[in-house]
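Email to the structure team, subject: Bifunctional riboflavin kinase/FMN adenylyltransferase model.

Hi all, the expression group asked for a predicted structure before they design truncation constructs. Nothing fancy, just the tokens so they can compare against earlier work. One-line instruction: predict Bifunctional riboflavin kinase/FMN adenylyltransferase, return tokens.
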Amino acid sequence: MQEEAGADGGIRGLIEEGRVEEAAAALGRPHRVEGVVVHGAARGRELLGFPTANLDVVHGTAVPADGVYAGRLLLTDPPQGAGEWSWPAAVSVGTNPTFDGEHRTVEAYALDRDDLELYGRKMAVEFVRRIRGQRRFADVQELIDAMTADVARARELMA
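Reply from the structure team: attached below.
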């Protein structure tokens, strides 16, 4: 495996800087984090119109820099013979500064899907490309507008 230098050195440094495309080139595949889907504040579904799977990421995993990414949401233990268990996604990593969040989260919105019941399931998120860094928005409508643009960009990148 080829090592490339990020600020902290190596592939982990690239990931932690949000340079997920370079990390994928070095790994030979997209970087992924795994965890169990847990209940969040439900703002994605109820307030913003983008229901997200909130991952309780496995401790010690390299999580990309705060921001929004295009990627894939995958069920890591699908039932045999089951249908679709992988979806293109817009992924948010960070503290949700618009809502004064303090804890980093990894939240994935399966593009154009609001029918998935994933609580308690083991999932993975693959990071394909960084869309933008995290920022605080003046109000909820400004956040929704940015999320709409992020989802459109993720859809383009994952097509």
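The beta strands are 31-38, 53-57, 67-75, 86-94, 105-110, 122-133. The domain at 31-158 is CATH 2.40.30.30 (Elongation Factor Tu (Ef-tu); domain 3). Ping us if the truncation boundaries need rechecking.
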